[in-house]
Amino acid sequence: MNWRAIAARYESVQGRGNDLLKNIRGLRRRLTLLLAVVGPGLITSNVDNDAGGISTYTQAGAQYGYALLWSLIPMTIALYVTEEMCARMGVITGKGLSDLIREEFGFRSTFFVMFTGFFVDLANVVAEFAGVAASMQIFGVSKYIAVPLAAILVWALVMRGTYKQVEIIFLVACGFYLTYVISAILAKPDWILAAKGVVIPNLHFESGYLLTLTALVGTTIAPWQFFYLQAGFVEKKVGPRQYRQARADVLVGSISCMVIVFFIIVCTAATLHAHGQVNITDASEAAKALIPLAGKWAGLCFAFGLLNASLFAATILPLSTAHVICEGLGFEAGIDHKFSEARIFYGLYTVLIGVGAGIILIPNVPLWKILIFSQVGNGIWLPVVVIFILLLVNRRDLMGEHVNTLTFNIVAWVTAIAMIVLTLVLVYTSIFVSSPPVG
User: Fold this and answer.
1) What is the pTM assigned to this prediction?
2) Taking phi first (over 0 means left), then psi (-120 to 50 degrees means alpha), and beta for anything else, what does residue 295 get?
């Protein structure tokens, strides 16, 4: 027996085993680090699929079938590029976006951002509680019961929870968006036609089509997202060493957001559009219409998805606004602070929740005017915020070696200019073309 050969083979096997253990430990360490960082990107991107966004996606599918699915790829790129810059600034500087705007551009610029953000976000909060009311009515619950209960729920969640606890709940809420996947599967769409719609552009130079396309892009990127995303990474104390994981979080969030949009459009295209029901004005109408077309469970899943999205956004939008104002004025902000340490922050959050929910309870409130105001406000606010972001992220004294590369700058500026043009078109149509819904 050749003992030397046996010993050499043993050492070889032992070496491979040690290498395997090292690889497993390294993978576990990287996975642990990613899980510690993940959250702000995934949450911020998915909460963009709120009541207003879902209504827009529903109308896109009902009116144009699979024809607008091609826009999801450029929308994903635009969402990732803009959010990644904010994530990078938060991770590298350790400061929120309002804080940086105040320090680098002065109080006047910050005041404009705060003033506009407060009223625009208030209108958006009203829209989210409208989504709560509409979805719960499908389940037979009056808005006079559903809206106050929802307001108390989201208020208590933030007032009583820590950042880690609240983030876990938000991540669970992201999972509930899978109800739209179930609705789409139950609708039995033409998957091959849907896949072609994603990869083959189907552009029509017709006013209604272009307006819907503009609305799709306009609902994908909202100004409040940037503030909440950056504040989220700062509050989690994510530093430069975790930048790669933060970037991965934003990428996963951007893709998962657009995947849900894909299934919403596919679901309504396979049912409402296929059966000629193109005059659907919001997501709650779509949920009701789905029941006779795709079955009870498809409609109820769609309605539950709307409720989840509305509650989700009704929690995060006021948080974003409170962060914007408190950072801009130099007050303490963040869920991990006690009420006695951040009275202004929690006070603003409470006011936005109370007023937003209260407006929905007013009989015959002109909700369509509020929705138009929120669209117009977002349109005015977005270009300003995007330009601030681009100016800040290219400051070498602020970002060091983490400023945009030339390629990234080209993509970012093209994205920003395209978003500005499309948003201005949306503002124009909202003011001069939009009219109150019939009935």
Assistant:
1) 0.81
2) left
- Closest among 352, 338, 379, 302 to 123, alpha carbons compared: 352
Per the CB < 8 A criterion, the answer to whether 328 and 98 are in contact is: yes
Domain total of the chain: 1
C-beta of residue 403 within 8 angstroms of C-beta of residue 391:
no
3-class DSSP state for residue 239? coil
Question: Which residue do the tokens 């970002």 mark?
Answer: 399
| pLDDT of residue 412 exceeding 50 | yes
> How is residue 240 annotated by DSSP?
G
CATH, residue 385: 1.20.1740.10
Q: How far separated are the first and last CA of the chain, in Å rounded? A: 94
Return d(Cα 76, Cα 220) in angstroms, integer: 9
d(CA 385, CA 391): 10
Per the structure block, which two tokens stand in for 48?
Answer: 């963009």
Q: Which domain holds residue 55?
A: 18-432
Q: Which residue has the higher pLDDT, 5 or 331?
A: 331
Q: Give the pLDDT of residue 17.
A: 54
Give per-residue pLDDT as tens, 75-109: 898 889 889 999 999 999 988 888 899 888 888 88
Burial of 405 (0-12, 13-18, 19+ CB in 10 A): exposed
